[in-house]
Hints:
Layout lengths: L7 H11 L8 H21 L14 E6 L4 E6 L6 H8 L5 H12 L24 E9 L6 E6 L5 E6 L5 E8 L14 H11 L7 E16 L5 E13 L16 H11 L8 E7 L5 E7 L15 E6 L2 E4 L14 E5 L9 H5 L2 H24 L1 H24 L2 H4 L5 E3 L3 E3 L1 H7 L7 E5 L3 H6 L3 H6 L4 E4 L2 H10 L1 E2 L2 E5 L10 H13 L1 H11 L5 E4 L8 E6 L4 H8 L4 H4 L4 E6 L4 H11 L3 H18 L7 H9 L3
Parallel strand pairs: 1-7, 11-13, 16-17, 16-19, 20-22
Antiparallel strand pairs: 1-2, 2-6, 3-4, 3-6, 4-5, 7-8, 9-10, 10-13, 11-12, 14-15, 14-17, 18-19, 21-22
Bound molecules: adenosine-5'-diphosphate (ADP).
Adenosine-5'-diphosphate binds next to helix 2, helix 3, helix 4 and strand 6.
Amino acid sequence: MAKKQFKAESKRLLDLMINSIYTNKEIFLREIISNASDAIDKLCYLSLTDSNVGLSRGDYKIEIIIDKDQRTITVRDNGIGMDANDCENNLGVIAKSGSYKFKNEMNAAQAESEDLSIIGQFGVGFYSAFMVADKVTVLSRKYGEEAGVMWESKGADGYTLSEAEKASVGTDVIMHIKDDGEEEMYSEFLQSWRLQELVKKYSDYVRWPIIMDVERYEHVKTGETNEDGSPKFEFKTFNEKQTINSMIPIWQRSKSEVSDDDCIEFYKEKYHDDKDPSALVRINAEGAVSYKAMLFVPSQQNEMVFYADRKPGITLYSNGVMIMESCEDLVHQYFSFVKGVVDSPDLSLNISREILQHDRQLKIIGSNIEKRIKSELEKLMRNDRPKYEEFFKHFGMDLKCGVCDEYGMHKDFLRDLLLFYSSEDKQISLKEYVENMPESQKAIYYASSDSIKHAIALPQCEEVRKRGYEMLYLGGPIDEMVLASLMEQDGKSFCNVVTDDLGFDTDEEKKAAEELEKENKDFLGFVKDALGEAVADVRLSRKLASLPCCLTTEGGLTLEMEKYFRNGPSEEMRSIRATRILELNGEHSAVAAVKNAWESGDSHKAKELSCILARLAELMAGAEIEDPTEFARLVSGLF
Ligand code: ADP
């Protein structure tokens, strides 16, 4: 029989498939099943107008038959079938949607570079069979035809086409599974359990039953009896045809059919979480874009991955066929902890990641579900605060990073979801903080250190607390960045008690402070010189009450940010330093002691005491002190 040649472009794709080093070969089954399902759809559709079809909805099925001796997997459908022309047109060329897109994208991605990782992103269609099979036989009979047709190919060198006997309408795709190699094990695909697993993973929700022989063990009577007359039993293995897909996904069912509790059970089983999710979102959208979604907000972090490394948790389906396990382009990274499913008939099965990125419908779905997730979280925050706090403990960092990401583009969307520790010993949102502000309070006060505990202990907080104002305590560099991104809340600006002017002084007080600063100019100048490079300036403070000194910074870059940059990727980043200012409490006895020493001409002692104060300020600010031993020596000298 004459061998026909594939078109050049098909040949190239086939080559790729056959020699594929791509690890995700298992998707072949999804592709072949999906074709079978489409073929049934077509015949089922035809039967609406053609009574000769003679099949009713319940008759359609997809069968998977394994023959271990022949090393074949057959996927059989009773769908529309193909004639010789169809085989030639559909199986011999890349002209159809998915494969065509694949080819174009492949060209763009420089197939030569052997970067085949993109294969899994495509519906690569029928050709994917060649990833696991060295020969594919298609036996088909088209609806309305008496005879069947056989198409056969061993890969890139061409295919044969001939007439064949086939008793019923439909298609058998027979894949002759490759022999095992040193590295590649293909025999696993001849195991019934493995194929069941693949059907469950990729095609569970195909609308038509997928039927397969499944091994079943039973305790049966042997016919003999024991000595006491009781019947003898033995274990027997049966092969039983079973439908292995569930056909109607849980998210396709209405709220009256499936309770929220059922959904939660589904979540726990599918995502291996022993805790109930903190929120459940069920959407049935019809209109410009139709889709169903079932989404879960976990209540705990049970993966060892953080923000940037976390794979998005939403799987994309089109009409019950999984098209992307972890869809990146649906919701932003800050919601990557959300798990669940989005299923839309408006999305094409054969869609690439690159195309998805620009897909308008996907964008609409994404923005709708983000709004729903947000409103669900707001509801939780209002109605069940402990539960929200538990959620925030695990995923608050994602939301904070989301505020800072992309130059603060999403800050207004996320701001109401954030919680901060407050001096009232509870967690509070910025909105709530502003609502609680007394008339006299001008700004949102916060103190920041490397932990909440250290922030509370900062000497600069004393003055604010003395006035009875609520404060926010930030416990890490990201918190400061978040406030820097947010810039304000309901018209109120943020005031960093460590670095900013608290704005408490009256004009007279300010004037008096300036006078005092002037009077002490020489003394402060001495302390500054004594400290050398360590500080940019030394000033008298109006923020201190019971403590003698504190360290502040000037020019926007704070000590917390400096610490953050210290772990940065480049030397340049790591060497970034905040401009340090030492503030002294002019009314404190420790400062008076330094001044006395200086005034009495004991500049050695005055210098040593100045150094002690500077180191104390650094310690309280949570900064590292450069020479701890020298500090210990200085302090020991006081005894
Ligand atoms: P796609 O499904 O993206 O069109 P495929 O390479 O998977 O691309 O399949 C090519 C075509 O071959 C299908 O569009 C369909 O017309 C035909 N085909 C494949 N499998 C079957 C089948 N089991 N029954 C009928 N037609 C089929």
